[in-house]
């Protein structure tokens, strides 16, 4: 013990330049991100902002009990995880695909313009976006027009009214909105691949597909794995705006998600304690998920988060 | 540039796939934007009827006038530019610096620092405690609340670190042998090599701050001089919404029809916020799209 | 790089300049006010505002709401960072609970003769359990209430249907749907689009347009989720969710849905799409509150006057005596209060008192005599066509005239004044019919009425408590949680009730009633308690 302690301090001294460079960041993160965590204590109270912290009534685990015993809790959990997984996988898949495809485009202008256009939906808020999606999918919308004209269906389909389709509509509209913006990350990694690798591959007679498979993709692997791990931890934190705006009473059994449930029974009623309890629950699930994913990556010898 | 000498069938097929994919993508991503553009130039009440696609039916610049005439909006745009530039420049630099530190595999605090930053992505203190903290730090009613709390975001940090991890270690080693200090290595070797990823997180940061308004609402709403562009636009939208919403229920019969409708405002806001980004974007884009001309380093 | 740095430096200087407070004019008394409605910032000058500022020597720094009110309220209370005056919609009581507002009783007694006089009828209803008044609502009714052109709620029907049937008076839901169904059969298309027999709004919080149906079919105005039924001298809170009338209502909608009369996409459409459908003129019927249909109606009036929507007080049985119009009420559960942070409450109440004098109200709502309105020999106000034209431009009214900045959410007067002039120009008795569009007049003439409210019975006379929906359920109470669960149950079950096949209706109905049966007891108890309190104290 003692000797390891010694080496630790010795090492620390030896790396004092790095320590000095990182110390402000440690203080910074503690102040801005960790001090407010005292608020977690609210989860065990009936917090009412009009009283000071010490005048609050303590209720123990009551808020957690309410949360976990709600009749719709498991529905909500299922929908949240299902839609998050669909969004995560489809979003990443298409962003990577776009990055790979753009990398194969030879005309620089076309490449730049396409890349610019593809991220435009990022700036369209979900309020506007949801309207566009709902109009496109309505019975007299463009999708039905297309299907009718191609003779694939003989009467229009009410897409927004099919409960089982809802998750996929969410997934598809998520891809639409994020594909271009998400691809930027992968493009940055592709750019840094040394051209000599490709040149060598050409000399070896590798086809373009083979070059993608054996050079580009492996170069992307670390960032893909890291993003997977980070986002697995975010499965519970999926934003609610998109789903809230696309959802309707017909599909509610498939569209009710945790963040909306949390909002309805928490902040909207000014029940801060319940909202905090729900937040803690999300955090705990996130931490379990992210460390499991990290552990799996470690076991497979891949890039790790920590 | 690499060009295959002879084009086999698989090569042609690949090109067919690539261009079909990209053209389909252009259609689905460009159309909504053009539609929004058309609605922003269409008379608001006429838009209620629907049926506007690529071209306005009753052309008007009224939506833009009602959003942009106000003096305050230009002041707010100034605030937005200030916060965006400050946070992007300092945030990117600081993030890169810390990312370099935690990319050093031999650094003793590497795991600890990575851990406390990663955790912040998954635990949040909540609205009220955060407000109390900012109040104590004097950050409420203060411009710097836009800049300080978001300077180093864990997500960006990890992305940059992952990138730096992929750089050849030999570069650092040889620099060390030459007697370079840690800070010099970071500044002179790591920074220039990390341009693509730094451009990426710069874009993420800039886009976020350019369209931010929630923190204005929470911390600075009582001081009009600190409003951001998006906040001013949200104000107009909220007005339009409430004119057709429950707040005005009691006054409904007296309220004249609003010529600016929520839908027209939303479309116009989208355009106003997007255009400046689209103008600045190419300057950063060249770092990760221009491609191999920059000379890759990963092996 | 150097250029970048210099820009950066410029930004820094600029941003520091922003933090410096704007210099205040020293001769004016300033108050900070938080107002929970949304408006653009006041420019500091307007026709109305300049006069008021000159006469009072008071300048208001207004903060209007942009984001979520509940979050703002939480932060304000937690940090005890209050402006001098505030109004926070239905959360105003939270500030009372937190001790943020000062009692106004003595201030009104000593310094506010106008408030004392014109709010006299409402003062009892404004008293909290401790006997104190903490805030003043907008739109007090000091004398008689005024008529409106449209009733607040109605079963709307397309003018074309009425015309084709020689303007029948519609009383029952069956009759209403029969007219629609028959007309739709004969006219399956309008302007090249499919006719929609009946549509209904079910988007987000606006869905009450649909779920309130049974309450209105029972002849009630909008009370909220429950109806207080008069039994002897008592008002007993009863649910209409799960009632026979509700069953009848959804059964009818279900039948009509399967016949293709009810809009197939009603339950998957949002508000924008709803307005779009109605303003196309192809919708024959819808149930809603007028302010949710108004935007579409205005399009119709201007562009398809043959298809304007006309409201009727339809009930489930013609025997039912309807009272669907709102009894004129003042929303006494919210209003503007003076906070503990205000250093000169006397000046603040004097300012509010100045606002509710008859002269100031005429200035704010009508304008300057001779310039914005005329007075005839009987002393009645009216506007010339030229003056009217100005007031038809909402941006002019708001920004140049300045009405909203002294009216919306501020204490104000409504109804008819002592000499019969309406405080609100649009409700001036002579103007309601005269300023209607040709199409509106045509319908009114056909029924021999001077406004669409003329198609309705008089509202309930008594019912001091009215309406039930202004009661807020206590935070963290069982009733509050029940209420949210109830909403969720409605969202889930109503679309199925209407959209499933008719054979499945009974089973769906049973599933629905089973789920809601346990979600009402605490709510009823709480509402009953508060209704009783209101009946006793108001």
Describe this structure in words.
The complex is a heterotrimer of chains A (306), B (299) and C (538). Chain A has 306 residues and is mainly alpha-helical. Chain A has a single domain (42-299), classed as MetI-like fold (Orthogonal Bundle). Chain A has helices at 2-14, 16-34, 62-69, 73-103, 108-118, 126-137, 142-149, 166-191, 195-203, 208-232, 241-246, 252-255, 258-265, 272-299. The longest helix of chain A is centred in the first third of the chain and has 31 residues, at 73-103. The two termini of chain A are 24 Å apart. Helix content of chain B is 65%, strand content 0%. Chain B contains 13 helices and no strands. Chain B has helices at residues 9-40, 44-47, 62-68, 71-103, 110-119, 127-136, 154-165, 169-177, 182-193, 195-210, 214-219, 229-243, 262-289. Chain C folds into two domains: 27-145 and 330-427, 3-Layer(aba) Sandwich (D-Maltodextrin-Binding Protein, domain 2); 153-324 and 436-537, D-Maltodextrin-Binding Protein, domain 2. Chain C has helices at 2-19, 47-56, 69-79, 92-97, 105-111, 113-118, 123-126, 159-164, 173-186, 208-211, 213-217, 244-258, 271-279, 290-303, 345-355, 358-365, 385-391, 394-401, 404-407, 429-434, 438-447, 478-499, 505-517, 521-537, and strands at 29-35, 58-64, 85-87, 135-136, 153-158, 189-190, 193-194, 196-199, 226-231, 234-239, 283-289, 309-312, 336-338, 374-375, 381-382. In chain C, the strands form five sheets. A five-stranded mixed β-sheet of chain C has the order 2-1-3-13-4. A four-stranded mixed β-sheet of chain C has the order 8-11-5-12, sandwiched between helices. A two-stranded antiparallel ribbon of chain C has the order 6-7. Chains in contact: A-B, A-C, B-C. Chains A and B meet through helix 1, helix 2, helix 4, helix 5 and helix 6 of A and helix 1, helix 4, helix 5, helix 6 and helix 7 of B. Chain B: Pfam families: BPD_transp_1 (PF00528).
């Amino acid at each position: 013990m003692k000797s390891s302690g010694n080496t630790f301090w010795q090492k620390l001294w030896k790396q004092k330049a790095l320590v000095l460079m990182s110390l402000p960041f440690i203080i910074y993160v503690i102040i801005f991100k960790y001090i407010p965590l005292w608020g977690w204590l609210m989860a065990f109270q009936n917090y009412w902002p009009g009283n000071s912290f010490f005048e609050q009534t303590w209720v123990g685990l009551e808020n957690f009990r309410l949360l976990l015993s709600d009749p719709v809790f498991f529905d909500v959990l299922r929908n949240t995880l299902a839609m998050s997984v669909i969004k995560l996988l489809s979003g990443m898949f298409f962003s990577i695909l776009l990055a790979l495809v753009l990398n194969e485009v030879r005309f620089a202008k076309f490449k730049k313009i396409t890349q610019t256009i593809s991220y435009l939906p990022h700036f369209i808020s979900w309020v506007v976006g949801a309207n566009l999606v709902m109009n496109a999918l309505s019975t007299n919308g463009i999708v039905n027009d297309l299907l009718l004209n191609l003779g694939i269906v003989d009467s229009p389909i009410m897409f927004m009214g099919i409960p089982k389709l809802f998750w996929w509509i969410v997934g598809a509209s998520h891809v639409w909105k994020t594909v271009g913006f998400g691809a930027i990350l992968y493009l940055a990694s592709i750019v840094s691949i040394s051209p000599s690798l490709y040149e060598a591959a050409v000399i070896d007679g590798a086809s373009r597909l083979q070059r993608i498979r054996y050079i580009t993709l492996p170069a992307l692997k670390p960032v893909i794995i890291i993003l997977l791990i980070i986002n697995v931890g975010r499965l519970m934190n999926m934003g609610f705006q998109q789903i809230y705006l696309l959802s309707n009473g017909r599909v509610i059994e498939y569209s009710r998600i945790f963040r909306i449930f949390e909002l309805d029974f928490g902040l909207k009623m000014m029940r801060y304690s319940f909202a905090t309890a729900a937040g803690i629950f999300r955090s705990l699930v996130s931490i379990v998920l992210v460390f499991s994913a990290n552990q799996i990556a470690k076991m497979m010898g891949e890039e790790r988060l920590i | 540039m690499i060009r295959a000498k002879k084009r086999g069938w698989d090569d042609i097929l690949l090109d067919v796939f690539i261009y079909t994919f990209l053209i389909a993508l252009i259609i689905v991503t460009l159309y909504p934007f053009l539609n929004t553009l058309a609605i922003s130039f269409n008379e608001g009440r006429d838009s209620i009827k629907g049926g506007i696609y690529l071209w306005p039916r009753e052309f008007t610049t009224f939506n833009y006038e009602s959003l942009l005439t106000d003096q305050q909006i230009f002041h707010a745009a100034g605030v937005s530019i200030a916060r965006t530039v400050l946070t992007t420049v300092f945030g990117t630099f600081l993030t890169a610096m810390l990312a370099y530190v935690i990319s050093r595999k031999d650094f003793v605090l590497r795991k600890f620092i990575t851990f406390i930053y990663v955790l912040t992505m998954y635990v949040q203190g909540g609205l009220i405690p955060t407000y109390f903290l900012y109040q104590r730090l004097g950050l409420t009613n203060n411009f710097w609340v836009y800049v300080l709390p978001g300077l180093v975001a864990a997500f960006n940090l990890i992305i940059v670190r992952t990138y730096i991890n992929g750089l050849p270690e030999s570069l650092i080693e040889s620099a060390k042998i030459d007697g370079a200090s840690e800070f010099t290595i970071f500044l002179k070797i790591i920074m220039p090599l990390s341009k693509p990823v730094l451009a990426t997180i710069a874009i993420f940061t800039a886009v976020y701050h350019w369209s931010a308004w929630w923190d204005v609402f929470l911390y600075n709403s009582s001081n009009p001089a600190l409003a951001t562009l998006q906040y001013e636009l949200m104000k107009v939208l909220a007005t339009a919404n409430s004119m057709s919403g429950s707040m005005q229920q009691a006054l409904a019969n007296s309220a004249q029809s609003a010529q600016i409708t929520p839908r027209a405002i939303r479309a116009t806001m989208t355009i106003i916020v997007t255009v400046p980004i689209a103008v600045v974007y190419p300057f950063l884009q060249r770092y990760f799209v221009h491609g191999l001309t920059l000379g890759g380093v990963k092996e | 790089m150097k250029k970048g740095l210099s820009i950066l430096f410029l930004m820094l200087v600029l941003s520091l300049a922003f933090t410096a407070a704007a210099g205040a004019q020293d001769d004016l008394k300033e108050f900070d006010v938080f107002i929970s409605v949304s408006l653009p910032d006041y420019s500091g000058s307007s026709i109305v505002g300049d006069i008021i500022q000159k006469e009072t020597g008071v300048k208001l720094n207004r903060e209007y709401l942009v984001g979520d009110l509940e979050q703002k309220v939480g932060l304000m209370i937690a940090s005890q960072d209050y402006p001098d005056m505030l109004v926070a919609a239905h959360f105003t009581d939270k500030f009372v609970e937190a001790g943020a507002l000062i009692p106004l009783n003595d201030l009104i007694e000593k310094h506010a003769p106008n408030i004392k006089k014109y709010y006299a009828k409402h003062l009892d209803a404004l008293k909290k359990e401790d006997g104190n008044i903490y805030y003043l609502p907008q739109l007090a009714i000091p004398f008689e209430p005024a008529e409106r052109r449209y009733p607040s709620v109605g079963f709307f029907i397309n003018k074309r249907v009425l015309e084709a049937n020689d303007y029948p008076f519609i009383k029952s839901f069956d009759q209403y749907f029969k007219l629609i169904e028959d007309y739709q059969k004969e006219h399956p298309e309008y302007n090249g689009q499919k006719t929609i027999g009946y549509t209904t709004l079910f988007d987000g919080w606006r869905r009450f347009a649909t779920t309130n149906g049974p309450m209105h079919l029972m002849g009630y105005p909008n009370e909220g989720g429950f109806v207080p039924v008069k039994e002897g001298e008592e008002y007993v809170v009863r649910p209409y969710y799960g009632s026979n009338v509700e069953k009848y209502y959804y059964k009818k909608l279900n039948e009509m849905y399967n016949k293709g009369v009810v809009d197939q996409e009603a339950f998957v459409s949002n508000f924008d799409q709803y307005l779009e459908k109605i303003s196309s003129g192809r919708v024959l019927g819808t149930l809603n509150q007028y302010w949710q249909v108004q935007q579409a109606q205005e399009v119709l009036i201007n562009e398809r006057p043959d298809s304007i929507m006309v409201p009727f007080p339809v009930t489930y049985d013609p025997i039912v005596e309807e009272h669907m119009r709102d009894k004129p009420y003042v929303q006494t559960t919210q209003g503007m209060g003076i906070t503990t942070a205000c250093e000169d409450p006397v000046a603040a109440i004097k300012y509010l008192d100045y606002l509710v004098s008859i002269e100031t109200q005429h200035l704010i709502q009508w304008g300057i005599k001779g310039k914005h309105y005329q007075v005839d020999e009987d002393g009645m106000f009216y506007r010339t066509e030229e003056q009217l034209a100005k007031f038809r431009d909402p941006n002019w009214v708001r920004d140049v005239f300045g009405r909203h900045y002294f009216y919306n959410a501020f204490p104000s007067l409504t109804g008819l004044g002592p000499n019969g002039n309406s405080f609100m120009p649009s409700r001036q008795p002579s103007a309601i019919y005269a300023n209607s569009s040709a199409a509106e007049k045509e319908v009114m003439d056909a029924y021999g009425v001077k406004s669409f409210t003329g198609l309705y019975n008089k509202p309930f006379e008594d019912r001091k408590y009215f309406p039930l929906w202004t009661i807020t359920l206590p935070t963290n109470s069982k009733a509050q949680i029940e209420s949210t669960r109830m909403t969720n149950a409605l969202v889930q079950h109503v679309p199925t009730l209407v959209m499933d096949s008719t054979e499945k209706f009974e089973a769906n109905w049973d599933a629905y009633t089973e789920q809601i049966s346990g979600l009402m007891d605490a709510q009823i108890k709480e509402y009953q308690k508060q209704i009783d309190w209101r009946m006793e104290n108001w």
